[in-house]
Amino acid sequence: MNLELSLFNVAIVIAIYESFHAYLFYKSREIEKKGRISIRILNNEEENAIALNSFFFRNTIVFLSNEINEKILRHEEGHLKQPNYIYAFLLLVAALLPLSYIIAVPAVFIGKFLLWKMERDADLYAYRLYNVKYESDVFRPKSRIERLKAWIFDTHPPDYMRKIEEYYDKK
């Protein structure tokens, strides 16, 4: 195994991940502190938030809009309570990639599964502790291709899945 290349890949992943979190942290301003959690806003027009849960930027929720949405806050709080599997997975793949580039193919599917699991766990956290369910006016696409695209190209489970009652069963 090429140790130098593995270390270089790991360093690149850390630099990119931490730089993105640093950008969000320093471009936003803190408006509230709830215990150890810092709540910040970025003043964009998007109604969403990002939980910063990395080595250098922890316990921070950055809202991309000008206002705090309690439902989004509870979901993002769930992300702060869970280990950051994606970051650890990216570091592992970066370290192992010099062994064989074939690792990249299953890594995409495993990474996607981890994203869905983390998102569902955050949804379940918000539901169990605060009785907050995901709300959306998006309906299940009729086309199989549209449903497949909803599963493949989104980091969350599809909206039409997250709003049904069965999604919140602990099975």
Number of domains: 1
| Helix segment tally | 6
The best one-word shape is globular
The biggest beta sheet is recorded as: 4 strands, mixed
Helix/strand order, N-terminal first: HEEEEHHHHH
Instruction: Compute the average pLDDT.
Output: 88
Number of strands: 4
Give the C-alpha Rg.
18 Å
Helix content: 40-55%
Distance between the termini: 41 Å
Low-confidence stretches: none
Topology:
Layout (H helix, E strand, L loop, with lengths): L2 H25 L1 E6 L2 E5 L7 E4 L7 E4 L6 H12 L3 H12 L7 H27 L13 H9 L6 H4 L9
Parallel strand pairs: 2-4
Antiparallel strand pairs: 1-2, 3-4
Helix pairs in contact: 1-3, 2-4, 3-4
Care to describe what's here?
52% of the residues lie in helices and 11% in strands. The chain has 171 residues and is of the alpha+beta class. It has one domain. The protein has a 4-stranded mixed beta sheet, with helices on both faces. Strand 1 and strand 2 form a beta hairpin. Helix 1 (3-27) packs antiparallel against helix 3 (85-96). The longest helix is centred in the C-terminal third of the chain and has 27 residues, at 104-130. The radius of gyration is 18 Å and the shape is globular. The protein starts with a helix and ends in a 9-residue tail after the last helix.
